[in-house]
Every structure is written in structure tokens, then in C-alpha cells.
Amino acid sequence: MRHRYTGTYAAGIGCTMRRFAIGWFLACVFGLVAHAQSWSPPWYDTGSPVWQEIWVNPVLGSDANDGATSNTAHRSVSAAWNRIPRDAVLTNHGFRIRLVPGLHTNVPTYREERRGTPSCPIWFEAMGTNGSVILPDLNIFDCSHLYFTGIQFNKTVAGGDGFHVERGRHLLLRDCTIRGNGLVQEGIKVNQSRHIYLERCDISGAGDNAVDFVAVQGGHIRGCRIHEAGDWALYVKGGSAGILIDGNEVFDAGTGGITAGQGTGFEFMTAPWLHYEAYDIKIVNNFIHDTSGAGLGVNGGYNILLAHNTLVRVGAISHVMEFVHGRRGCDGDTATCSSNQAAGGWGTSGAEFQYIPNRHVYVFNNIVYNPAPFQSQWQQFAIHGPATPPVGSNLSGPQRADEDLLIRGNVIWNGPVDHPVLGDSGGCQTPPCTEALLFAENQINALRPQFIDEAAGDYRPAITGNLHRAMAFVIPPFPGGDAPATPVVPAGEIANDVPRERTGYPRYGQSTPPGAWTAGASVRLTGLTAASADLVAESGFRYLIETASYPGPWTAFTTVQVSQATQPVALPPGTAAVRLVRAVLVP
Question: Which of helix, strand or coil describes residue 435?
Fold first, then answer.
């Protein structure tokens, strides 16, 4: 069903709203209505720190210089790093290390025990275009408030990871490039860390995973290109929690695209997150394409949201999405495994088994599009039946992979009309997950999505296409209050609003289509007065502004080509006590 909204105002100070269906696609129509942005600011806030600047020029610098200006730069990154006090919290100022473009070879590849703070961070910054500063791969241990912007990390010898962090706190990579070149096991590996932020990075060339988070709590992965991985492109596991994975492009991966959870050695988990493989993970607005295995998965997750993602050509060797148990075993440190088990964690000091359950996994308003002849090899979804945990694991009885698994509002075009939905995977036998409900609450091979320009790789919904008629479901919050109590984990974010679409424009609930983009359907008129209004809409689209007196017909006033997120619109003079204004998306 296509919808529009109308807004009225009296003397510019009040409004009401009503909703009705129409026969031709219109955008939304608005009065004095504001939409709260719950994910602001979208990027990590670096604040207003106090700096000491250190310049590094790999060609013209000298380590005998003081590094204070570009003309007195050090030659090596090592000299700059060694000026930062080790194993001491910075209090008077931070360090801004300004790197002149070029290949930097004298670099400490192992960096440890540098303790920045919010007001005194340690910041490595490329002074040219993104990628113009080239460093080798790095290993970082026990560092805090350490930022990298605009830097390329280029792996040239086989072995290790492209960028590795252990026990980091508040680490930021923004506009960075990680090139594994097929020589690394992981592109970015982060373990036992807190508050990790990857923003607008390009990460590629890993034999296993492009991004691998183990026991990481807090942070986001946002606006990145993650690709060329032999295993999963991206997973967060081992008790990782509170991570937003938003607006990334993920492609060219073997086992799959993005998953919450997987399997972990019990000794590598950190208290109190010793039960599920992943907690409170939100995977939204991502464009996932050309993965051999499942585009999305949850393997042992609690309170996991997969919403408004667009998946194209996924699952050639398996299925398009999977909801299965996580694995747990002890990788040799039996003392730590036994300690975690004694603290109430789920696991033993023995062999690995697949039994960690899923609970509260919500899969809403995604698009899966596999144009023929491409299709998943097996069924649409892999949803496993109950698993029996080993004795002594602090779990007993059958453990489910589908407890409160909600799959609603998704558009799936994959294989022939009779392509199996569940196959023999064994789960999804009781409400709210049954095969009948999957057909009733999703469009499964019943609606082929229409895009703006599929041939050119533009998978935004066509403006007058059928995706605007697809039923988008309101995403409920997680119930909350039922996480494991021994040990107690912090309460996560139970709200499941997705207030923005992939390119950052506001998303207005059921008035926008499924998938990562809204293609012009994300629009509001705000700040309405007698003389003007603000059009909040997606750039690159045209909107017809119409006005009306009440009662009276709509009159076209002007057409606006949107070039910025909020665009002022002057309104014609009028004398009616009540006037209406609306914005209509022009095909």
C-alpha cells in the first residue's frame, strides 16, 4: 500500500496529521512535525583535545629535529612514538602526530602501553589525501584513546594480521585503508577490548576474515567497505556486546557476509560476558553482495537486530540467512576455562561443541535479491533445531537457536517459486517462528524487487516501483530483563528504532520501503511558518511543493531539486486561517 501524510497549521503554530491511501506514489506530507534522531552524533566524537604536535616526514625529516613544525619534522614514526610517555596516563596534553604523505618504513609495528584520555588522546593523522600515508601492519596492546585517520596500512609480507588490537580502549580508525593483499589471516583483528570504532574504512585481502572482533564491548562499524575475505567478511563474537554495524558495503566473501556470534575458545572471553557469543548487536542499513555463503547470520546471539539491509547474490554454496547455535570449546588454557565456568559462564574445559543458543533475534524489513540464474544452493533460511549442551557447561536441557526469532517484513527473491524455505534444518517449528508465519509475514518469491538501475548496481528502490508497496513492519523493542544472571551482564539497548537509512537520511517507519535505501521516500517538511518551511529530504531527488487552503484544492507551487539534507523553501503568501503544505516525490 502506498501512503502519504498531510500536515496542517493554523497561523503557523499548530498541526494535526491523518493517514490515507492513494493510487499514485506520493512522498510524505508534513506540517510542524519533528523526527527525533536517536543515533546522534553518527561518528565518534573526538571532542576538543589539547595537543602537542609532532610532524614526521619520511624523506626530508631528521630524528635530530624537534618535530614541532613541518620544517623541523622527524624522519621516523618510531621517534615520534617514543616521545609519548609509556605506561602513564596523559594529563597535560595529548599528541597529534602529523604524517607527511609517503611510505613510512621506520615504524614501531608493536605499540603498547600508551594511555591517552578524551582530552589528551594520541592521534596519528595523514596530512594528505586519504591513503597517501602508507604504514606497515600494526600490533597494538593495552593502549587507550588512540586514533588513526586517513592512513593506509599495507601488508607486504605473509603472516599475522593487517591491524591487530588487544586490550584496547577507545580506539578509532577513520578513513583508513587496510590492505591485506592476501598475505594476512585477518584484515582487522580486535580482541578483549572496549569502545572500538571503525568509520569509513576500506578493509580487504584477508585469508580468513576481513574484520574479526572477539570479546569487544561497545563501539560501531560504520560506513566501511569490507571485502575480499576467504571466510566471513565481518563477525563479532566471543561475548562481543553493544556494537552497531551500520551502513557498510560488504562483498566478495567466502563463508558469508556479516554474523553476530560464531565460535570461541572459552578462555578468550571476558567477564561478565561469558554466556552468549554476541549480545545487543544491531546490524542495519548494510549493502551485502556477492558472498558465497549466507549474507547474514546469528550464531549464539542474544538481543540481535538484523534490519533494513539489502542483500544481492548471496548464498551460492548454502542459504541466504542462518540462525544456528554458536560453538564453544577450550583451546588449551584449561585453568582459565575452568575459572570462567566456575563464574557461571557457559562452557567447559573440554572439546568444542555447537550448543550456544539464540534468544531474541529480530529480522525485519530486509531485501534479499538473487536474480536468476543466481540462487542459494539450499533453502532460504538455515534455522537449527534444539541442541544438547555438554555436561558441566552450566546449560542443561535442549538449547534452541530460534527462541523468540521474529522474521517479518522481508522481501526475498531467490530461486524458483518452490525453493525450500526451511529445508531439513530442523528449527522454526513453533510460534513466533513457523513456516506458515514466514510466508504470511514476508514476501518470499512473491514480489521481484524493482530498483532504480539494477544493471548499473543501483539497488535503491525504484521511485514508482513495487518495493514501496511492500509491507514494512514496526520493529518492537526487545523484552529486556532476561539476560543470564550469573555473572550479571549490563543491560543493553532494547529499543530497535532505525532512524536513518543507509546514506544518512531520516527513515520514517512504515512510510519507507524495506532494504537499506529509501530512494526519496524519506522526506519531511519541518519548521513550517506562514512564509517558509524546511524540506528535509534525500539529495538527488525532486519534490513538488503543493499548498492548499482549508477547505480548498491542492495547488502546485514549485519543484525543488534537493542538493542538501535540509533545504529551505519559500512559500507563497496566503490569508487563510488554516493552510496545508505537502511535498510530493517526482519520478
Answer: helix
